Amino acid sequence: KAGVTQTPRYLIKTRGQQVTLSCSPISGHRSVSWYQQTPGQGLQFLFEYFSETQRNKGNFPGRFSGRQFSNSRSEMNVSTLELGDSALYLCASSLMTAPNTEAFFGQGTRLTVV
Amino acid sequence: QKEVEQNSGPLSVPEGAIASLNCTYSDRGSQSFFWYRQYSGKSPELIMSIYSNGDKEDGRFAAQLNKASQYVSLLIRDSQPSDSATYLCAVRGYSTLTFGKGTMLLVSP
């Protein structure tokens, strides 16, 4: 059974550019969550999608957006990149959004903004 | 503000010893609790989930949950150098999964 697939694995972008990251969840999973991980802040929640609907959103500026498609694949977009956006972006796949639901992470996309 | 607190470490133990990792959380409505292991440069890997008060064992790993004290712990028995990693505690209520900042574990041969 395939795991969570994130693409690309690495990205280098210039300040002011925009970037789109992709996440394909485990087959049959309908919930996708995105997290930003930096050494100082740890794992910070960005947003959660279930059945193409955003269910929760973290405390990030509007430059961060996402969406989920009918096949449960999800994308997140960051516009007008800033140096502080350099981080590991992680996608987690869950069967659903209920409390007793395990979440499994993809390999992550490491974004470097220069 | 839902918070999950962990000692950042590093926690150093010799090979073969028991490593004890602790986590406290602020939201009394939390319903499920998870431990993830993250090697340097890699993504978090789920190693244990626990949903009700008490103990749960899985091989060398054992989790304990005390909802009254808002406390969850992870024991690693017979620690191996390959267990050296950062261990993340995560808590979920009816909404999102909230993570602690992790405890770094170092197991020396």
Describe the overall structure.
- The complex is a heterodimer of chains A (114) and B (109).
- Chain A has strands at 5-7, 10-13, 19-24, 31-38, 42-50, 53-57, 64-68, 74-78, 87-94, 103-105, 109-113.
- Chain A has 114 residues and is mostly beta strands.
- In chain A, strands 2, 4, 5, 6, 9, 10 and 11 form a seven-stranded mixed sheet that branches. A four-stranded antiparallel sheet of chain A has the order 1-3-8-7, with no helix packed on it.
- Chain B has 109 residues and is mainly beta.
- Chain B contains no helices and eleven strands.
- In chain B, strands 2, 4, 5, 9, 10 and 11 form a six-stranded mixed sheet that branches.
- In chain B, strand 6 and strand 7 (61-66) form a beta hairpin.
- The chains are: A mainly beta (114), B mainly beta (109).
- Chain A binds chain B through residues 33, 35, 41-43, 45, 48, 55-56, 58, 88, 90, 92, 99-108, and chain B through 31-32, 34, 36, 42-46, 49, 51, 88, 90, 92-102.
Name the poorly predicted regions of chain B: none
Measured between the Cα atoms of the first and last residue of chain B, the distance is 40 Å
The helix/strand order of chain A is EEEEEEEEEEE
| Overall residue-averaged pLDDT value of chain B | 95
